[in-house]
Amino acid sequence: MHFPVTIPIGKSGISAHFICETVAYFAGYRYYIYLRSHTGDKISSENRLIIFVGAALGALIGSHLVGILEKPGDLAHISLLYVMANKTIVGGMLGGLIGVELTKKRLGVAVSSGDLMVYPLILAMIIGRVGCFLAGLDDGTYGNPSNLPWAINFGDGIRRHPTNLYEILFWISLWLMLKMIERKWQFTDGARFKIFLASYLVFRFFVEFIKPDYFFTFGLSVIQLVCIAGILYYYKVFLHPSKLFKAHA
Length: 249
Known about the structure:
This protein is mainly α. It has one domain. Helices cover about 60% and strands about 10% of the residues. It has helices at about 15-40, 45-70, 80-85, 90-105, 120-135, 165-185, 190-205, 220-235, 235-240; strands at about 5-10, 10-15, 150-155, 160, 185, 245-249. Strands 1-2 form a two-stranded antiparallel sheet. Strands 3-4 form a two-stranded antiparallel sheet. Strands 5-6 form a two-stranded antiparallel ribbon. Strand 1 (about 5-10) and strand 2 (about 10-15) form a beta hairpin. Helix 7 (about 190-205) runs antiparallel to helix 8. The radius of gyration is 19 Å and the shape is globular. The protein starts with 5 loop residues before the first strand and ends with a strand. About 35% of the residues are buried. The mean pLDDT is about 90.
C-alpha cells in the first residue's frame, strides 16, 4: 500500500481520507436518525436542532483553538490558513460539549442530549480514523518510530506506531463494552455519554506519549493538558462509577 491512498477517477484521483470523512458524517447522521426513530427522544426536534448548532459551533472553535496551540513555537507565524489547517478531535469534542451545555442551559433542557449520539459518534470516528490511516503522513495522526511487528511505514521509510489504528481498536472495544453493559444494567440519564467521552480522554492522554507532539519541559503536551481538564470535569465517573447505573435492566 502506498500512502497517501487515493481513489482513481478517470485521469485524476480523490483522497481516500476525504471520502472516509464524508462517509463518516453521512453514516453517523443516518445512524442517529435510525436510533432516534426507534428509541425515542425526550428533546423536541426544534430544541435538538438548536443544540446541534450549539455543538457544531463549539466543536469548530474548540477543534481549531486546541489545534493551533499544539505547537506553541508556530504561534509567531499564525495566519487564517494556519488556523483552518490545524484542528484536533479532542478540542472538537470538549468544545462541542461546552457548546451543548451552554445551549441547553439557555433552552432550559435538563435531560441528556448526548446519550443518543454515542453510537453514531463511535461509528463516525471509526470510519474517520480509517481515512486518517489511509492519509499516511499527510494527516499527522501517526505515531513515533517503532520496531514492533505491526509498525507501519507511511511512506518516508520509517516504521511507526499506527496510532490511528489503535484508536479504531479503542472505539470498537468501547462499543462492545457499552453493549455488554447494557445487557445487564440500565444507564442513568447522560451516563453513556460520560463514559464515552471520559474513556476517550483517558485513551488520548496515554496514546499521546507515543506521538510526535510538542511536549513542555514538565513532560506533557497541549492535548494531554486538555485531556486532563476534561477528565477533571468528569471526575465523578471515576470516583463514583456506581452512580452511572440505575438498577438491573
